[in-house]
Amino acid sequence: MTHSIGDKLSGFKREITQERVNSYASASGDHNPIHLDAAYAATTQFGTRIAHGMLSLALVTEMLAINFPNTWYSGGNLKVRFSAPVISGETVKIYGEITDITKTNVGLIATCSIGCEKPDGTDAVVGQATVPLE
Amino acid sequence: MTYPLISTATVGHEFGPYDVTISSNTAKIYTKAIGGIESPDYGDSQAPLILVAVALTKLIDELGLFSGGLQTIHAGQEVSWIRPVKIGEKIDARGKLAGNSIRGNNRFATVKVSYNDETGTEVGSSSTTIIVSTEHA
Description:
The complex is a heterodimer. Chain A is α+β, with helices and mostly antiparallel strands. Chain A has helices spanning 18-28, 33-36, 38-41, 53-67; strands at 12-15, 77-82, 91-104, 107-117, 123-132. In chain A, strands 1-3-4-5-2 form a 5-stranded antiparallel sheet. In chain A, a hairpin with a 5-residue loop joins β4 (107-117) and β5 (123-132). Chain A is elongated. Chain B is an alpha+beta fold. Chain B contains 2 helices and 7 strands. Chain B has helices at residues 24-34, 49-62, and strands at 14-19, 45-46, 72-81, 85-86, 92-103, 106-116, 122-133.
């Protein structure tokens, strides 16, 4: 598969249901009530249950695995910031674009802008990834 | 009043090692949480982010941030991965506090984590930045 600067990565949309959040809590061990307990979450600055930030980031890394199936887990890097919470029940859009391709002594490295966008168009997760190209 | 570890830990403080080995059952639950029709087939390997997430949970617990009603914000995350990890493969995570400072009314802490297999070879690394209100920490 060839890649070029400006290529959009194959992304997707996914609804972050409370069932997903509950499953994520079980898998990660993070049972913070802000993710799970509606009554507790209502008392926080967010006023409602929010998804784990790492759940949103996990979706972004799914996109990287889809687009770079043989290299993302063998030399991939990412750096992101969590800029807004995803509310339980929101549908997020996972997106990315190749912004640079650099020739290095270990081969070609693609730099990608990556993110997880909320329904209102703001980013919940935004950052950059570098991935070796085959 | 008992203050959480994050209030007193200095840069260089070491965490772990934590056993972050992922069982097949945990891998299935993780797939249920994040999976969709577009999801790649990981085969007998696992998405490395679950290792990072499990280590992060243990770190936050050790830092004392699950207690006392503290509201912690996960501000930033870096992940680097060297090779795929198989489901059930024994992996240890070791963390080191790389930053711990107060700006305004918030404490900013950064913890770097190294993930190693049974031979001690690094399979990945991560860096997590969290923010906690200094009202509590």
